[in-house]
Amino acid sequence: MNTPLYSGIIMNYVCTAACRHCMFASAPDCPKDYITPDMAERTAALLEEAGTSSVHIGGGEPFMNFRALCMLIEALNRHGVGVDYIETNAFWCSSDEFVRERLMKLRGLGVTTIMVSVDPFHIEFVPLERPIRLCQVMNECDFDYFIWKDRYLRRMIRFDRTKTYTKEELQKALGADYITDTASEYGLGMNGRALAIAGDIYEKRPAEKLAAAACSSLLDVCHCHLDLYGNIVPSGCPGIAADARDFLNENIAPEQYPVMARLLSGGTKALYDYAAEKGFVPSAEGYPTRCAFCYAMREFLHREAPSADLAPDCFYTSMEKTLHPQTGGES
User: Fold this and answer.
1) Nearest to 96 by CA among 45, 138, 46, 57
2) pLDDT for 206-249, tens place per residue?
3) What is the C-alpha separation between 55 and 226, in angstroms, rounded?
4) What domains lie within the chain, and their CATH numbers?
5) Which of 60, 83, 111 is nearest to 233 (CA)?
6) How far apart are CA 313 and CA 311, in angstroms?
7) Cα–Cα distance between 214 and 265 in angstroms, integer?
C-alpha cells in the first residue's frame, strides 16, 4: 500500500464562499455533508495502516461544523496521525473571545497551526476584519499560523475591513485584470473553478492537439486528498475519485473506474476515444488547456455515462453553474 505524503482530508465540500479559484468548486449551496464519526475512524485507521504520519484538514470550510472537526482530530489522534494545519477563510471569527475559545479547544487536541486564506477571491465573501482578528488572537495565544498568501493582505490592508468587495469594486481598486493577475501570481493549477479563468489567460487549441501522453501522476500520493465519502481525489484533479483503499493499492479496475483507467493507460487521447464512443463532440472553438479539455469530457460523461470515478456530484453541479451560468448550470 502506498503512503500519502503532504496530503489532506476534505471533511466537507460546502463552504461559506464560492471563490473563483477554488480547486474543489466548493460553495454555500453544496450539500451540507460533513465527515461522520464512522468515516473519520475508517480514514484515520487507513492512514495509520498506510504509514502516514500527518495530514492537513480542509474543505470546503472545516470550521462550518466545529464539532465534526474536533471529532475528526480525535480520530486521527487515536491512530497516531498528526495534524499539520487546518485551513480556514476565518468567516467564523466574529469576536476575540469566540476565536480564543476555539483555539484553546484545538490546542487541547494537539493542533498548533492554522492556515488563513486571504486574497482578492476570498474578500468577495469574507471581510478582512475576520482573518485579521484570527491572526491577532493567534499572536496573543502564541498559536502558529501562516497566511495564504500574505502578500495579498499587504496589498489590501488599506481596504475597508468591515465589508466584502464585488468584482467591480476590486477592479477599481486592484486593476481591471486583477482576476487573471491574481491567478497567475498564485501559480494556480488552473483546475476546478479556476478553469473559468484559464479561458481568459490561454489561447484555445483544438481538442486533437490537446490529447497527450498518459497521466502518469494520477496515482501520485503526494498531496492527494481523502474526502468525507471515503474517496481519494488525485492531486490537481478535482472531480476524479476512487475508493481510498483502491487508490492506495493502485487497484483501478476499468469496469469500476473507466475514466481513471483510461487516463492512466492512454492519457487524454484514451479518454477522448471513450467519450466519443458515448457521443461526446468537442467544442469547435477548442480549449485553453488539456485540463479544460479533460473536464469537458468528464462533464459530459458525468451526465451521460456516470461512473464511480466521476465524483463527487456536487463538484460537477458547482462547475456547471460556473462555466454555464447562462443556462442555469445546464450545459
Assistant:
1) 138
2) 998 888 766 768 898 888 999 999 999 999 899 999 999 999 99
3) 10
4) 8-201 (3.20.20), 207-218+238-327 (no CATH)
5) 60
6) 5
7) 6
